[in-house]
Fold each of these.
Amino acid sequence: MVIFLRHEFPVNPGRPVAAPGGVTSSVFDAMADWCDALHREVPLQNAFAGLLQALGAEAGMIVRTRLRELRPTRVVTYDRAVSSICPLKSSFADEYFGPHLIKPRAATIWLGSAHADEKCARDAVALHDWQAARRMSELVVLVLSGGPFVRDHVELHFRDALSADTLAALSAVLPTMARTWATRQAGLITGEALTERRAVSDAPRPQLLGVANPARLSRAEFRVCLLLSRGLSVDGVSEELGLSEATIRSHLRSIYAKTGAGSLAELVFQLIQPDRTTSEPLAWIA
């Protein structure tokens, strides 16, 4: 089953007033920064990083999803292992929870380990591959707002199963997070999302098909990417490799997770970009 937790506690506008059971002083301080950040008194990136560190999360992001296209936009991202070979780049919430997460209630917690839809969980190839690469065990989604057209959520990744204290802390602070999110300063999401996109775009990136194989693509995934970089469609790749379209799309889900690409067009764009970190020759593996 999907777990919904809605334990609320009184707050003054913009700031929590007391730390309920399960909330440590570090979480309480981080929540104060979160509330200030939503009114542009401190950078949201810093406040978000502090909150995740206080909660013990390894990585996470704030995501806005336009429900008509199920298109996620990263607002802010934090990854404790910033130099990891497989940093957090993509939202996995919709892939894992499927249609159950289309229009959720605000201030609810969704635990990956408590999700009972076996088909959705089994089909979440990209998440499983990323968790295996980073040795993560728990995905948590905190719903900030859920309207008919747009959903905002926080996506957290933990190395270990959640302790009772961490779950209690999440349950206690989420209502305040959602309430202050609803009263945030106008234009905050747009500005943060543009900053996030610019940072990702400007970051030096090695060529995905280079000899270093920075995304750690498997041989099969590498061949799929190679054919895509040469202009073949998914159908063309399927025919060239003698594999079913379903198999190719399964490879693509894993490739998206490893590269952070949000779509086929974005992946192809990454594949054809020149190497911005080294002049190493490409490893063209047929």
Amino acid sequence: MHGFIQNIKQRSELNTDFRRVLYTAKYSQLVLMLLKPGQETGFDTHMQDQFFRLEKGMGHVIMGGVTTEIYSGFGILVPAGANHNIINTGQIDMQLYIIYSPPNHLDGSVYHTSLQASAVSKHFDGQTTE
């Protein structure tokens, strides 16, 4: 396979893992994320640009001290160095996909819970999907 060609909306909505790396290229990475009601990513700052697409659910994004309500269909671009947090304020799971540029996580990694994900100290090691 060269590249990633799949129904990302369907993959996002079927995802049951906190974080699942779907595809890692040399300069970008595609990741699924699920936040349960009341769950949040926690304030974080990356040295990568990130694009979030909210496929299902609702909540808030806090970036640069500004809180914005988000819901299905929203896109969020977090520039490198921006402190941000995404919070599921709804009654159903929030399902998103994220594009990191450059990659941030180990290719193929799957974390069923945020606790598992937070315990990992290894980040992208240069290994791509293909």
Amino acid sequence: MYALHPLTVHLPIGLLIGNALLTALYLRRGDPALETSAYHCLWLGLLLTLPAVLTGTYAAVWHLTSSAAGNSALGWINAHALVGIALVVVYWQAWQQRRRHPAVLADVHKRRGYLVRLGLGVALLVLDGWIGGHMVYALGVGVNGP
């Protein structure tokens, strides 16, 4: 099951980045179809973070319990998990705000909070992806088995 984590992270990452790009295009062009597409990318990306979290948790537990060198990567694994949790919380808040107020981007006051959440979400995505890449390529976590 450990090898599923790399497979399960790419689609939510792409969808959540797509949400940010489509939202930016909507703000520039004003086409409602772009905003609707951005919303669908948001909820589908958020939904697909669940398999990524589950497979990542399994891989982390397996690595820490079966590897003698597991403790050397513990700080990085914890950082990856904490940033991932923050990422889910931020995108959950953005989704709830958009779901409760479908015209959130039309309201100047509500729009700011929504866009801040989307920006923070993208920043957390980049940071979490970097930490995950560092764990694999620099520390070798999950390279020779789970």
